[in-house]
Amino acid sequence: MTANLYALFASRFPADKTACCIETHYGQYYTWGDIERASARIANLLSSLDLPSGARIAVQVEKSAEALILYLATLRAGFVYLPLNTAYRAAEIEYFIGDAEPAVFVCSPQNFGWIAQIAFKAGTRHLFTLDEGEGGNGRRNSGSLLARAMHHPDQFETVEKQADDLAVILYTSGTTGRSKGAMLSHGNIGSNAQVLQQYWHWQADDVLLHALPLFHIHGLLVAANGALLNGSKMIFLPKFDAAKVCRQLPRSTVFMGVPTYYVRLLTHNGFDRDTCRNIRLFVSGSAPLLADTFAEFIARTGHTILERYGMSETAMLTSNPYAGERRGGTVGLPLPGVSLRLMTTDSNGDDVACGTDDIGDIQVKGPNVFHGYWHMPEKTAEEFTADGYFKTGDVGKLDRDGYLAIVGRSKDLIISGGYNVYPKEIESVIDEIDGVLESAVIGIPHVDFGEAVTAVIVKRPEAKLTTADVIALMKAAIANFKVPKHVFFAEELPRNTMGKVQKNVLRERYGT
Ligand code: AMP
Which CATH architecture has domain 31-185? Predict the structure, then answer.
């Protein structure tokens, strides 16, 4: 039997293929039959290009139903899908093209000029454009990809794939050093999607409100794959917009977002229990959900957000339970099939026991764990232990019941005067202070201590907090070596598109 992900999705849609699969913000409807025919045309086009097996199809386009169809067509034709963040500009695209050597690049028409120069210089054989779709002005999807695909048949026999064959390369966001291409196979992605379908109790009549970008693991492999695997309808929003989300929530049963989405919903006028009356499940991930947001969401809507944890290299690793207790400040329990352990950061590398409050490096193994970094065998070897565990680069602790709390990235660990300081622990204490909206703790070079614990704080608008207040309160709450040596107040924290705080930016800003 083929392990091609596309075949797995196709098997989940009812045989008559008339059920709506995607409804766009512009009121276009795509049944599974439409998607099958459109993806067949694109798969035929890609196959006609005489590409070697394993060829990469790099895609940097705005979100649209057609962009998702292109992903499906790539899988169907047996090539490797390589989505790129729409924010990337020339220097970044040059790096990705040089590194991944895609045979095909699909871009937005407005970027064609500069991308063509980079792509052709690098030897990319085919460059197509794909527009974001009908923008309410009567203009249908355009671009050379669809124009060319229209001349190909709407039937295509999905290419046979083994579980270990590559399906997708996801470039990590690369906050330190160069971004690395995580190679995920059909087996990695398919197994994870099936586990999540069971774990999150996907139901026959579920409707997913899809507001995430399609170039990231969250929007593509967790959200879109979840709905596809369940044969469910998705309502596609081009991007997150609190007012539009509130309008569509009553028609939906599942919503997935990064923590910032939930923060913004809570500040949106009119977002209440009634808006969420038909929602079965709210999922959060990709960055830590603040305890305040978790609690405020329950108070406002009666819904407990389910937080999960994963990364481009491994897909999803842990999740709070669907039916059991969802614990705020934790990312839940290892998913079925995932073996997860915490190892002490010292050279002994011992296992850290549950419920000890001890912190350790998170290591994982499972059918979802990737096949390595593209073109980086040494880096890949470094990131796996001798017994086959992947070193996630995250540090965490396990409570008595085995719930995992993420303490931060190991590279964000601060070593001050020889002591290890975990930023998350300090941030949690600062966030408890009256008048603090949120905070980020970083280490900056210090002559005596090596690194000085430094806090960057966003105050609530009405708060009159001073540096001296913060330091006095911290001294009363935690050991002296953890108390920030510097406190800065900022209007907001720098975040990337997935809502992650960019600590590298803060280190640059406050470190000199
Ligand atoms: P990405 O590959 O862009 O999805 O980034 C993965 C990283 O995001 C992980 O290694 C974690 O550091 C972080 N992350 C993902 N989910 C969570 C979560 N629920 N809480 C805290 N950090 C998270």
Answer: 3-Layer(aba) Sandwich (3.40)
pLDDT of residue 273 exceeding 70, the answer is: yes
Q: Using the predicted structure, report yes or no on whether residue 345 has a pLDDT greater than 70.
A: no
Measured in angstroms, how far is the CA atom of residue 316 from the centroid of ligand 1?
10
Max distance between CA atoms of the chain, in angstroms, equals: 72
H/E stretch holding 212 reads none
pTM of the model: 0.91
> Considering Cα of 480, then 481, then 483, then 485, what sign does the dihedral take?
positive
Measured from CB, residues less than 6 Å from any atom of ligand 1 are 172-173, 217, 285-288, 307, 309, 311-312, 331, 392, 394, 406, 409, 498
Q: Which long-range contacts (CB under 8 A, 24 or more apart) does 137-142 make?
A: 141/64, 141/66, 142/109
Structure tokens at 147: 């124009």
Q: Whose CA is nearest to atom 6 of ligand 1?
A: 311
Concatenated DSSP letters of 364-376? EESTTS---BTT-
Q: Which residue has the tokens 């704080």?
A: 457
pLDDT tens-place string over residues 34-73: 999 999 999 999 999 999 999 999 999 999 999 999 999 9
The per-residue pLDDT for range 97-130, each reduced to its tens digit, is 999 999 999 999 999 999 999 999 999 999 999 9
Q: Where are the domains of the chain?
A: 31-185, 413-510
Q: What is the CATH number of domain 413-510?
A: 3.30.300.30
Q: What pLDDT band is residue 416 in, cutting at 50, 70 and 90? A: confident
Whole-number Cα distances in Å, 244 to 62, 99, 249, 363, 404:
18, 38, 9, 39, 34
Question: pLDDT averaged over the chain?
Answer: 93
Q: What is the pLDDT of residue 162?
A: 98
Distance CA 145, CA 128 (A): 5
Say if residue 396's pLDDT is above 60. yes
* Beta carbons within 10 angstroms of residue 161's beta carbon: 22
Partners of 390 in beta bridges: 364, 384
Taking residues 352-362, report their average pLDDT: 83
Which tokens in the block code for residue 296?
A: 């405020």
Distance from Cα 364 to the centre of ligand 1, integer Å: 14
Residues 6+ apart with CB under 8 A from 213: 63, 85, 86, 219, 239, 497
CA–CA separation, 212 and 230 (whole Å):
18
Secondary structure class of 505 (helix, strand, coil): helix
